[in-house]
Amino acid sequence: MRPTTKTRRLTLAVLCVLGCVLAAAAVPAIGPPGQAPAGGSPRCFGAAARDPARPCHNPALRLSVTPAPSVAARSPNAACRTVAQEGPLRLCTFGVATEQAEQTVVLVGDSHASHWRAAVEHLALARRWTGISLARTSCPLARAVRDIPEPQRSRCVRWNRAVLRWFTQHPDIAIVFTGELSGGRGVIARPGADKFQARVSGFLRAWRALAPTVRHIVVIRDTPKSRPPGGVAACVAGAVARRRDAGEDCASPRESSLDPDPAAVAARRLGGARAQVLDMTDLFCDERLCYPVIGGVLAYKDSNHLTRVFAETAGPILERRTDGLMRRWR
Predict the structure, then answer these.
(1) pTM (global) more than 0.85
(2) Where are the beta strands (DSSP E) in the chain?
């Protein structure tokens, strides 16, 4: 008996609904812009997609971008609880509450230290640490004077002096995490001097001036820059509108994305257990290209600052790599 027209229409409707349900199940449930997906992260979300120790691929994330570029540009770094303003120093805490902490660590540097706070907080929570953020935009912890306009230049010098005094007054701090912008306008150096080496020397002099109670300085190597035509936001938004893979379409050559990092050079030069480099470059780049969208997550809020969402997904990897450094300290 042949099916009636009404029966055929009902069957097609059921198949259509079933297809929509299956399609929805294949795509991660993305929450509000600027947040991770609702109900927990999908498999291989963010930095997990490029974790060399645990290879992971989720084709359902190929066209996803979280947060949206328009939201990322104004999204803050990981939350930090303000503790005090001590002269030029603004201190705030993250991780576990001080009264519950087994140890206190410090994250110090410019905005390229702050954008890693979400990842360092993951480590702090796992180790039951209180983290103190001592950060100032455009001010790395260094004794070379930044080539920036006044009055910011003099304020940065005063901030660096205050940071060194603060560590002397807090002998309980044994571990410091730091990071800085590797490119930029550089530092003021005498005529004919190599400005890159002047920056290296500036880091070494600052670290050697730290209180001897600071036994370990973990330098997070600076992130690659993302330099697609038109900028990250425009390129990624355009790829999303065309339903293209934004990570692939907006990738930048590795060679032009990675600036030499004077802090990483200084850490290797200092050597030993006191200064070591934590290099996260492989989460952004392969041998040829560096990607602005990784595992469905927009890594950059501009050309060089990380989104909080991506930094959060990098937390477990930063934790494992820090554990590897700590094993060498013992």
Answers:
(1) yes
(2) 81-86, 89-95, 103-109, 129-135, 175-179, 216-220, 252-253, 275-278, 289-290, 293-294, 297-298
